[in-house]
Amino acid sequence: MLAMFFWAFVVGGAICVIGQLMFDVARLTPAHTLSTLVVIGAVLDGFGLYEPLADFAGAGVTVPITNFGNTLVHGALQEAEQHGIIGVLTGMFEITSSGISAAIVFAFIGALIFKPKG
User: Fold this and answer.
1) Which residue ranges run through the membrane (predicted)?
2) Mean pLDDT for the stretch of residues 83-108
3) Nearest to 31 by CA among 19, 41, 21
């Protein structure tokens, strides 16, 4: 069990280091960095490499932004097998809608409870 925590920390930390290097060394904007990490997650899932990495590192790869790309591709491929080309679009929206909806609802509740600065 301790090894599971260790590898989650190491792999998740490595993803964060890559993102920080993209900021500092490559001088990418936050939008470019986030987009690149999402695409990396999507490409890894497209080649079937994200699932074994998630089995190995657990929360180290399921929590960072790379998992969003993985989720998009995974849902699209799953629905494409069942419904064809239209499944590509519906699969992406179906599998990510709950997470996006939760983020919107919790952000709204947070804005109601706390006084925003600005």
Assistant:
1) 6-26, 33-50, 95-114
2) 80
3) 19
Is a pLDDT exceeding 80 seen at residue 116? no
Report the C-alpha dihedral over residues 26, 64, 37, 96, rounded to 10 degrees: -150
67-85 pLDDT, tens per residue?
Answer: 888 888 888 888 888 888 8
Give me 15's structure tokens. 């993803």
Q: Where are the alpha helices (DSSP H) in 25-117?
A: 30-46, 50-57, 59-62, 66-83, 85-113
Q: Which DSSP helix (H) or strand (E) runs through 14?
A: helix 2-24
Q: Look at residues 40, 1, 37, 45 and name the one whose alpha carbon lies nearest to residue 19.
A: 37
pTM here? 0.74
